[in-house]
Every structure is written in structure tokens, then in C-alpha cells.
Amino acid sequence: MEKQPQIELKRSLGFGSALSIVIGTIIGSGIFFKQGSVLDSAGSSTMAILAWVLGGIITLTAGLTIAEIGSQMPYTGGLYVYIENLYGRIWGFLAGWMQIIVYGPAIIASVAGFMSILMANLFGLSSAWRIPLAVITILAIGAMNMLENRVGAAFSVITTIAKMIPIAAIIIFGLFWGHQHAFGQTLSQVHQSAGNFGVAILATLFGYDGWILIANLGGEMKNPQKLLPKAIILGISAVLLIYTLITIGVLRFLPVQTIHRLGENTTAYLAVKAFGTIGGKLLSIGIIISMMGTINGKMLTFPRIVYAMAKRRDIPFSRALSYLTPKGKSPVVATLFIILLATIMMLFFDPDHLSDLCVFTVYCFYILAFFGIFILRKTNEAPRPFSTPLYPWIPIIAIAGGIFVLISEIINDPAGVMLFAGVVVIGLPVFWIVKKLDQSAND
Fold this sequence. Notes:
Layout: H1 15-26, H2 30-33, H3 35-42, H4 45-72, H5 79-87, H6 89-123, H7 130-144, H8 149-177, H9 188-194, H10 197-208, H11 224-253, H12 256-262, H13 266-311, H14 318-321, H15 332-348, H16 351-379, H17 393-412, H18 414-425, H19 427-442
């Protein structure tokens, strides 16, 4: 029987696409929907702004650390590949399992859930329409990503450019036409019960999360050793500046009592109040496009992890999940798998709850990866394509920030933590069963 030629992913992504995927994947629902929860936990406008800044700094130190590791392992799979190369096959499997079963579907479901709130408000629909709207959006974006990677990358570029319009509008209007003092407003009456400054930073980290997903496309970049670190660092730095300015703009325009009262509807209210009914609708459309770009970036990257694991025969149904279309080289079955799990998550979890839990889950493995930079410095004597500046302080800050995330979420939601951690641990018997069946088939 004639052997079929092996189909591989295309190395077609350049720096512009990589940078837009980083920025587009990060800037989604968090900055627009977390203003109320961050403010409630921080207790004042000054501390809320500081929470967004510190969340960005923690994320930047994480990005600088991963940039050095990723430049030495420029392969499809990202965190899954890093953990396996650093700690062995089982730990690598758990990192991949966590992303495809828990983190990936949860974060897609969370962003889609937040987006559907704006869509329902925009079209004057009841809350019963939120889940159907979210599911339809995920299906449409997923279908687009079943084409070759250039289509999804092009959509990321377009939506990243488009999302800058509502962002610029909020920043400019808030800074120049706002009449509130961005600093010094206090919300002491809810500070006692809403959380604390640690919980506020934890909420911002959902807004910053997603930057590492570009590493999943390492095998599809033209020059990943150089492009990956540059895209991660410039992308996170740009988002840190944008988030700080948006927060100041919102606090300049709306008093903290109003933000507290509106919660997740703060951005929609601000849009109408600042730009009128029509202008508010246009701004809401821009924010919805922003969220679609975020979902697209995640839908582009997470199936690549499924593909990488299936190609290694690490998961059930590997033959189907590793299938690539002959023409577009797209992992269509893996994409359908992520769509299915994200839809299930949407049916059973609140988007705000999902956002916190997915951050906790991924940071468990981020910390392992951060420690990996010390391992590589000792074991890898080859020249590094990129070196983390201010070593070892930057990785130490990244590790400390990761530990802070874990402790905060365990204290804040122990039941949710146990549920998601349990799903990750279930991966171990799955791995052993798959490997035993695979070995039996080869004997």
C-alpha cells in the first residue's frame, strides 16, 4: 500500500500577524467587563488603577520569562511542549490536558458569555438570548478557523485594528471630557465584603491573560526564535498602557458609585452616556468586534494544542483529532472538539466565575514554566536567541505573582478550585489508559 505524504502545519505567520494575535487575544472582555469587580475589591479608584498596573507588570514579567524559554523551543504546542521538555512526559501531558479540557474551553466560553451580554443589550433582547448568541458566535468563528491559518490570522489583524476605535474613543472621551477625579474616589462601604486588593489584581489578570497562546503557533511562524519574544513583549507592553488609560478614562467619566451599581454593564452605559444612543450602539459594536477577535485568537491557537497532543497519540481519538485538511492544513476535528467543550462550559458556568477559575488553572502550570528558566540556564549551553533582562529578578517576580494568584483564588473560591483541579488530575488515568491501549495495538 502506497504511503500517503505527511501533512504538516504551514510556517506562514510573520511579525505583524504574531503581534496582532497577542494584542487581539489579550484585549477582549476583561478590560470592559471587569472594571466594576476590580473597583469593588480594590475599594477606591486609586487602588483600582494600581491593580490594573500591577496585573500588567506581573503579566509582563511572565512574558519576559516565557520569551526566553519559547525562543529555545519554537514548536507547535506552547506551554505543553515547554513543560514536557522541562519536567518530562507526564507533566507535559497534564499541561496540555489542562489547556484543552479546562482552560481553553473555559476562557472561550467566558469571553463569549461576556460578549453576549453586550449583543443582547445592543439588539434589545432578553437575557434568555445570551447563550444562543454566544454559541452562534463560537460556531461561526470556529468555522472560519477550519480554513487555513492565514484566514484566522487576517481576521486577528482586522479585529485588532477595529478594536482600537472603541478603545481610543473611551480613552479620549474620558480623559478630556470626564469631570470626575480618576484618583482618590473611595468605595469603602463595599470594600469590606467584596474582597481585597489581592482579589482585585486577580480579576485584572483575566483581562491580561491570553498572551501565551501565541506560543502555540511556534511551528507556524516564519522565524519563531526572533518573532516570538518580540511579539510577546511588545504586545503585553502595549496592552498594559492601553488598560491603564482605559481605566483612568472610565473613572474620569463615571463616579465610583455608578460603576459599582452597574457592574458588568458599565461599558454599555458609558457608551450611551458619552456618545448618545446611536454612538453608543456603534461603540458597543466595536467592543463586540474586539471580543470576536479575542475568541478568534483563542480558536486559532487552542486546537493547535489538541493537534500537537493527538499527533503524539497522548489523548483518546488521536487519529481523528490530528487530522489536517490537505489544502488548508487546518486541524478541523480539533477545532470542533474545542467548540463542543466551550459550549458545554457555557451551559453550566457563569462567565465571571469561569474567568477566575481558568486564570487559576493556567497559573498552576505557568509557575512550573517560570521555574524552567533556571533549569535551562544550567542545562542548555547553546547560545540563547533571547535572554530575559534583569535575570534572575524578572523570573522571581513572575513566580511570586503566580503564587499570589493561586493563594488568592484558593481563599476566594475553594470549591471551584477543587472542581477544576480535579478535572486536571483526571488526566492522569486517561494518559495511562491511552498509552496502554496504544502499546497493546502495537504489540
